[in-house]
Amino acid sequence: MVQQYLDHCKAILTSPYTLVKGGSKEVPLVSLFGYQNEYDLREGFPLLTTKKMAIKSITHELIWFMRGETNIKYLVDNKVPLWTRDGFNHNYKNLVREGIFSDGLVKYSPDWEKAVADYEQRIREDSEFAQKYGDLGPVYGAQWRNWKSVGKDGEVVKVDQLSKLIEILKNKPTSKKNVLTAWNPGDLSRMALEPCHMFFQVNSDSNILDLQMYQRSCDQFLGVPLNIASYAMLTQIIAQETKLEPRRLIHTFGDSHFYCGTGKRGIWYKENLNKFQDMVSSVKELQDYLNVLEDLNKLLPPEAIGEEGYDHVTAIIEQLSRTPKQLPRLEIADKPFDKLTIDDFILEDYDHDPQIKRKMAV
User: Fold this and answer.
1) pTM (predicted TM-score)
2) Mean pLDDT within 89-97
3) Does domain 2-51+161-348 bear CATH number 3.40.50.300?
4) CA distance 21 to 2
5) Residue 229 in contact with residue 222, Cβ under 8 Å?
6) β strands within 110-207, DSSP E
7) Where are the alpha helices (DSSP H) in 247-336?
8) Where in the chain is CATH 3.30.572.10?
């Protein structure tokens, strides 16, 4: 699994189809469209070993999805920062209107970072504030458990897609129609972030379970390793509840990308893509990636003060120099999916390299 991830990373950096383009989050990105990996879950839990992964954050987020929640209070209380910035951005206009934060904050600036930290603290300490300003709109949890449609008589019908998918697997496991989607066009404008992992389909022959997920937008350094682990976890949970053996996770990618820094740093990658690709393509041994990193750091403009950490390219080059280790094992209590808690997940034999820190673009 880890080698597949690393090979995919190198393909993004070296493919003749790679582009450097503007992103929706005000940080340019090195991008490759179209790719697929598959992981045999019988070989171990596909958690990245070439850097330390925050397994509790991954687990808490999946529990949050499966419960149908859309307010970040649960995540913040459990020290999971994955959605805090999106929550702040989504509620910012209302926070300004109420005089809680000042208008005109520049995204990624030190003042913006401080405001996000203050917002997170208020969410943690003030339940009324969290209820009013912590919701993200109808994101994943709402679509998975509470999809709203219009019935025959014009009434609103709520669809619990995840429960329905599990029931179909129990009663008609060979169905080719067992699909769950988070991409609800009518709700997109009300979401803090449109779904990146848009939908998944499960497949079975009454014995094994395969799951294929399509992801339209793929933050390859920070997001994708979490997505792989999360959907492997979900596959295992669904398989246990339906008495099937979890076999394969198939991950189909739309736009896979690395953020390449703000300001002059991002511009350099766009103007020097061919030179950069030649540097990476020349690598023959893992140690050579560190030489590329050293040379690259001499060429790159410095990141703007207060905006350090948004260049993920240098981070992945460091990670490419590392050797994958044996995959860990994950034990999950045999309980209904919506009854699971963090204590029901036990990760065993996780051997990993040190963490490589970067900031998430939002």
Assistant:
1) 0.94
2) 95
3) no
4) 27
5) no
6) 147-150, 156-159, 179-181, 197-204
7) 263-271, 273-281, 288-299, 313-320
8) 2-51+161-348
